[in-house]
Specification:
This protein is α/β, with parallel strands linked by helices. It has 15 helices and six strands. The chain has one domain: Rossmann fold, CATH 3.40.50.
């Protein structure tokens, strides 16, 4: 009983299926029915792909990896504004799943009033892809080993369509401001119960620095702190991604996930005015925050990537 009560206090994405089933009547039945359907759909698609290789669909594909509240959606909005052609974004997709099918089922459950959009996504989930200039899909809060699972990647063309060029883009924000934003938004926990926020940030930092090499496509590392402040850095990023740089969208505030953790959408059109590098000061007297960031390895890797952030030394306990 105590264990069940403990599970009930976890965020919904971390709860075992039995707890979700108890919390949401019909959840388990719907989930099981869909899983069985997925098996049959994939078996049929695999036979088709084996006899008729899928055509080239995406000129450019960006697999984006980042922790929540890193500025993922700000960057995605900016990427979209640098493209004139069709831009397709699949948001916060789960690991090991067909992303279009996940999006289709999400729309069925949450937006049944949009049947035309649902049918369009359903067709994509079945492999009837629409030619796209740039396909972007982002993973948030997942260990890298799960994102790059070889069995899943073997189904890439079936799930995403063939792409002319594939990038792996990893975005990282300094841990002090990132953690402050996550706590403010109530996102302290990550999506895996086997690893802590600090451990996952360090895992991403090591990949960022090239100490590990999970991401095997053309890898591009984005320093969020520099991306926000430096137009030359953004121009260089656009060049690496073969984009026509206009810098449009840099001052927009994404409405996804409620906008900024501290400012919401108050600074829409004036994003540069947000104090994104001073969020840590808001939690300087929070004991839980101080305990988490007072980590020698965290400080060491932060300094390697972001340099010494003025004032943050006082966060050490």
């Amino acid at each position: 009983m105590d264990k069940m009560l403990c599970f009930m206090t976890l965020p919904m994405y971390q709860k075992p299926l039995i707890v979700k089933a108890l919390s949401k009547p019909g959840f388990a039945t719907r989930k099981l029915r869909r899983k069985v359907l997925h098996i049959f759909q994939d078996a049929q698609r695999q036979r088709q792909v084996a006899t008729t290789p899928p055509p080239l669909v995406n000129e450019k594909e960006i697999r984006m990896v980042g922790l929540r509240r890193t500025g993922n959606h700000a960057l995605i909005r900016w990427l979209k504004r640098q493209h004139a052609g069709r831009f397709r974004h699949l948001n916060d997709i789960p690991v090991y799943e067909n992303p279009f099918r996940h999006e289709y089922e999400y729309w069925c459950d949450h937006y049944p009033e949009y049947p035309k959009e649902i049918e369009r996504i359903r067709q994509e989930s079945l492999g009837n892809f629409v030619p796209t200039e740039c396909l972007v899909y982002n993973y948030e809060d997942h260990p890298l080993s799960k994102i790059v699972d070889s069995k899943f990647w073997a189904k890439h063309d079936m799930y995403f369509g063939r792409s002319q060029r594939i990038y792996d883009l990893i975005i990282l924000r300094d841990p002090f401001n990132l953690l402050a934003s996550r706590i403010r938004r109530g996102f302290l926990a990550i999506k895996s119960t086997q690893i802590s926020f600090v451990d996952l940030w360090l895992e991403y930092a090591k990949e960022f620095l090239g100490e590990t090499n999970y991401l095997q496509n053309e890898k591009i590392c984005v320093n969020y702190n520099l991306w926000v402040d430096n137009i030359d850095y953004r121009r260089e990023l656009a060049e690496k991604l073969a984009m026509n740089f206009t810098d449009a969208g840099i001052d927009e505030v994404s409405k996804r996930a409620g906008g900024s953790s501290f400012d919401g959408t108050e600074f829409t059109g004036q994003a540069a005015k947000m104090d994104v590098h001073g969020r840590w000061k808001k939690l300087i007297d929070d004991p839980a925050y101080r305990r988490l960031v007072s980590n020698d390895e965290l400080f060491a890797y932060s300094e390697k990537i972001f340099g010494v952030l003025p004032g943050t030394e006082q966060l050490r306990i």
